Amino acid sequence: MARCWGVIPAAGAGVRMGYSQPKQHVLLGGKTLLQRSLQALLGLPGMQGVVIAFAPDDPRAADYRDTDERVRIVQGGAQRADSVLAALHYLQEIAYNDDWVLVHDAARPCLAAADGERLVTQVVAKGCGGLLAEPVVDTLKRVDADGYVQATVDRRGLWRAQTPQMFALGQLHSVLAAALADGVEITDEASAMEWGGHPVLVVPGSPSNFKVTVPGDLELAAFYLGINREGQA
Predict the structure, then answer these.
(1) Buried b (16+ CB within 10 A) or exposed e, 103-140
(2) Is residue 232 exposed (0-12), middle (13-18) or buried (19+ Cβ within 10 Å)?
């Protein structure tokens, strides 16, 4: 079985949620979004441990130290890529370069075990990194700064990226560090690997694995999890 490690960047503020606390700490059915995302990663086959990158002043970080012996805590950075790189630095001290790393958003609490297992299975079989994603089904419009449609975009071949995104530890660490050093804008781990010239496999995901972004998304997440907002099944 492949050796896998999880990374969750959780140093962001999630301002679009409009809450006084960071989005990852918002409760959904009695557990925080981060707790649910963490549980999903820990349940995947071959998972050796999960590193969570928190903001330096986040008082909730201590709550996760004793939740599972496989959970490790590091200090995150200003941007997502900085937090991921901090977690990778840590992993380089305890893991092998050819171990696999699955980077998952703290605000994707509905990752299904079958989707995560499909990602691990296909990435390991192909021997190259990959990510969960969904094909775009809506009609896409390119719009100018004044709000007028400029063109209809061909959606064929377009996919919406999800997480986890899974790559070999040594490869992801070196490419991400080089991209940040060169000032490249990194939107996700796949974009760094693309910049580095590495193949990236797309593995079909599910609509339920969406990112909670605004308050209304909590109701949808509760629906997919089969609970109400208070946590009752």
Answers:
(1) bbbbbbbbbeeebbebbbebbbeeebbbbbbbeeeeee
(2) exposed
Domain 4-225 in CATH 3.90.550.10: yes
- What is the DSSP code (8-state) at residue 1? -
pTM (2 d.p.): 0.93
- Name 119's Cβ contacts closer than 8 Å, sequence gap at least 6: 102, 130, 131, 132, 164, 166, 203, 205
Q: What does the pLDDT profile of the chain (233 residues) look like in tens digits? A: 799 999 999 998 765 566 667 889 999 999 999 999 999 999 999 999 999 999 998 989 888 877 788 999 999 999 999 999 999 999 999 999 999 999 999 999 999 999 999 999 999 999 999 999 999 999 999 999 999 999 999 999 999 999 999 999 999 999 999 999 999 999 999 999 999 999 999 999 999 999 999 999 999 999 999 986 554 44
Task: Kindly list the domain boundaries of the chain, sorted by start residue.
Answer: 4-225
CA distances from 145 to 131, 150, 212 (A): 32, 10, 26
Q: Which of 19, 14, 11 is nearest to 77 (CA)?
A: 11
Alpha-helical runs (H) found in 95-157:
113-126
